[in-house]
Predict the 3D structure of the following.
Amino acid sequence: MPFANIKVPEAALSRAQKEEIVHKVTNLFVDYFSEAVRPHTMVLIEEVKDGGYARSDEVFVIPDANRAKD
């Protein structure tokens, strides 16, 4: 069973954007493995709370202007 785990900042994506990611990642697996994997493909989008991750020793907090508007 193909499985993708995608971590994104909390509130960075709208529901529609998450649905688009799920669709595109599923299609990627189908393109690679064949249509037979579609019903068995799992895509998990995890939202990481602000301050829950860092890059280059800098803790990341998403600016309000970049938060998704559902």
